[in-house]
Write a structure and sequence with these properties.
Length: 231
């Protein structure tokens, strides 16, 4: 039994390095970019008029629709639509690309609401004080609001990242040979499903534990300027 465990470990680690980690990093990076854009569209209310005002409202409506769609449907279904469904209309994507798109769009939808909530939590007096000092809206957002929102948004976004690591196991359903699919292959070959699934679960747990330690470190670093407020 332990021979099977040891012989499967190199292949599982290879799948982790080759697929699980890159898929997580790429999807989270693109997802956060999408999330920031969507959050700012829904958060900002620029004083515009005429056709610009109409276009901005349409953009906000589109952003809200995107968030609603991806928060209201299962991630697995989204992956199936992108990989198996789109070829029906002539859009055929490689499995890895389809997975990155699916995970990124899903992450972006959830993270955008987290970021928007963090921006809303910053006291409105900060805006007034910045404008009094002559800051423009972009300067205020970038230099004053975003740094404060970052400290608020760090824990939930870290949880999103850790969750994404585990969600990458769904990529096995669209033919990507990541860790979970490799464990399924070994389980089918050696008739040891419990052993294989426990082994892959341990590897996911190891990854998530490392990320949790890093999360606590980042939270501590981002809160170092608040020590004086705690006294």
């Amino acid at each position: 039994m332990w021979d099977i465990f040891i012989s499967a470990l190199p292949k599982l680690l290879e799948a982790m390095v080759k697929y699980t980690i890159p898929l997580t990093l790429l999807s989270f990076t693109f997802g956060i970019i999408i999330a920031v854009i969507v959050a700012l569209i829904k958060f900002l209310n620029p004083k515009v008029s005429g056709i610009v005002s109409i276009l901005w409202k349409l953009l906000r409506l589109l952003a809200s629709f995107y968030v609603w769609v991806f928060r209201s449907t299962p991630l697995l279904v989204q992956l199936f639509i992108i990989f198996f469904g789109l070829p029906a209309i002539g859009v055929k994507l490689p499995a890895f690309t389809a997975a990155v798109i699916g995970f990124s769009l899903n992450t972006g939808a959830y993270a955008s609401e987290t970021i928007r909530s963090a921006l809303l939590s910053v006291n409105k007096d900060q805006w007034d004080a910045a404008y009094t000092l002559g800051f423009s809206t972009p300067q205020t957002l970038w230099k004053i609001i975003m740094p404060q929102a970052f400290r608020i948004v760090l824990p939930p976004l870290s949880n999103e990242f850790i969750g994404l690591v585990k969600d990458t196991s769904l990529a096995s359903t669209i033919t990507i040979a990541e860790m979970f699919q490799i464990s399924q292959q070994y389980a089918a070959q050696n008739y040891e499903p419990l052993l294989m699934y426990v082994e892959v679960a341990a590897l996911y747990a190891m990854l998530c534990t490392i990320l949790s330690v890093l999360q606590r470190y980042l939270e501590k670093k981002s809160s170092r300027y608040m020590k004086g407020d705690e006294n």
